[in-house]
Write a structure and sequence with these properties.
Length: 388
């Protein structure tokens, strides 16, 4: 058993961003990652909206990431129901929006950290508080333990830190999603736009990352199956092609030529907005951030950006109040972030429910709430998490 001051659990986007934000404020941390190497293969890509770029600017890595992806200027929805394609909505993007490979974000954040900040092969098993000092004791599956002064749980939607805080269980939409990357060696002809194709309660999205690489996803109603079959990329590709057999040839070709190692299948999960209202997200010197706190569906493209905001605000509060008053810093963080994440999560939840083929009554309620609460449906991008 050994001591560490600030321990971050999980080397995903939120964990690495939090470590970098703390480093910039002169606070040393160690990131404990369960995998044996950096998790920069899965996840395909993430859309970063203007609020996320503000956070990346504060972290000092925005300009590096801007070189990896082109901005897109508009979003378009095309209906394929019926005999012809029909454009049903079109709007121009306000502010900077780019689709980044998750690998590029992870690699860039990791490269900006001091050497040996991340320790691999450290899978957390449990947390308990020392009865005498009230410091958290972290036990790992290899039998090792750490006594930490501060624990920040950035360990995703299956968070052990969230379980320690007795947060309610993550819920699932009746939806699932396949995601992938397709490389066009000689370049593609797609406009720099986010195009969604709708047909028979299936949504296919296509976003160019640069002039050769395209991110795509396929959202569909979830049908209970043995999910082990979705671990094989070849099976994911075959099943997706079968599902989209009546889609335009260009979409089918995109899936046929996709990078199979980039393919993933995922049930869409969320922490209920009403649980965010009452949830206890910190206890003493233990706290959760990112998906461990507010995992949400992908419908607004805000999951990654919200995690980056968390990192900036959390590090700022810890630096202002100091590690001797970290409990106060955590309480302040929870107060400052609660309304923000409730609003983003609620808007995402309502869109997710509308995408889930609900009953007429549920559909009416969701539309009514959207009209009342989110008259400006793009306001989530206007948020500024402030200076680090």
């Amino acid at each position: 058993m050994y001591d560490d001051q600030v321990v971050i659990i999980g080397a995903g986007i939120c964990g690495l961003a939090t470590a970098l934000a703390l480093h910039k404020k002169g606070i040393k941390s160690v990131v404990m990652e369960r995998s044996e190497s950096l998790r920069n293969v899965t996840g395909a890509a993430i859309t970063i909206r203007p609020n996320g770029w503000r956070a990346l600017d504060q972290l000092g890595v925005a300009n590096i990431l801007r070189r990896t992806a082109v901005p897109f200027q508009r979003e378009r929805v095309v209906s394929l129901d019926g005999e012809r394609q029909q454009e049903i909505s079109l709007y121009h993007c306000v502010g900077e929006t780019r689709c980044l490979r998750r690998k590029d974000i992870i690699d860039t954040l990791y490269a900006a950290l001091p050497t040996a900040t991340v320790k691999f092969g450290c899978q957390l098993e449990s947390i308990k508080l020392d009865p005498h000092t009230t410091k958290p004791i972290l036990r790992f599956i290899d039998g090792s333990s750490i006594i930490a002064k501060v624990v920040i749980g950035c360990d995703g939607d299956k968070s052990i830190v969230a379980d320690f805080l007795n947060l309610k269980r993550i819920k699932t939409f009746p939806l699932c999603e396949v995601r992938g990357l397709t490389n066009y060696p000689y370049g593609h002809s797609f406009a720099h736009e986010f195009t969604s194709f709708k047909k028979d309660n299936i949504l296919v999205g296509r976003i160019p990352i640069d002039n050769k690489l395209v991110y795509w996803f396929c959202t569909q109603q979830y049908i209970l199956k043995d999910e082990r079959i979705w671990k094989d990329p070849k099976v994911i590709q075959h099943n997706t092609l079968e599902l989209l057999s009546n889609y335009p040839q260009g979409i089918q070709e995109m899936i046929k030529t996709t990078e199979t190692k980039s393919l993933s299948f995922k049930r869409l999960r969320y922490r209920a907005p009403w649980d965010l209202i009452t949830g206890t997200f910190s206890r003493g010197t233990v706290i959760v951030a990112g998906d461990a706190k507010h995992v949400m569906g992908p419908f607004l493209g805000q999951g990654g950006s919200a995690a980056l905001e968390d990192a900036v605000v959390l590090a700022r509060n810890m630096a202002q109040l100091g590690l001797d008053h970290v409990g106060d810093a955590f309480n302040l963080f929870v107060r400052q972030r609660r309304i923000r994440v409730i609003r983003v999560s609620l808007q995402t939840y309502l869109i997710g429910m509308l995408s889930s083929n609900p009953s007429r009554l549920k559909k009416f309620i969701c539309i009514l709430l959207m009209i009342i609460l989110f008259r400006n449906q793009k306001s989530h991008m206007d948020y500024d998490c402030g200076a680090l």
